[in-house]
Amino acid sequence: MSISDDDVKKIAHLARLHISEDQVPGYANNLSSIFELVEQMQAVDTTGVEPMAHPLDIVQRLRVDEVNETDQREKYQAVAPQTEDGLYLVPKVIE
Length: 95
Prior knowledge:
There is one protein chain. Helices cover about 35% and strands about 5% of the residues. The longest helix is centred in the middle third of the chain and has 19 residues, at about 25-40. The chain is mainly alpha-helical. Helix 1 crosses helix 2 (about 25-40). The protein is flat, with a radius of gyration of 27 Å. Strand 1 and strand 2 (about 85-90) form a beta hairpin.
């Protein structure tokens, strides 16, 4: 799939990107190469291939999910301008 210079300009406009005229052909070439690679990948027969989250068969080491901080709500809310029932009160900004 080939991307034209006009397509690049439209995409840049939609993405609100400023691309100078001398950069447009380079972007068109790069985007065309990406789309060609995607087309090649879509042509591969993947029936029977199980989807996986990572190409390596490894397991992440996870830390123990335990509380390691004390509850300091009273301390933090003591310096807040306004609180009520453990919540911070803020002025209404949207009507």
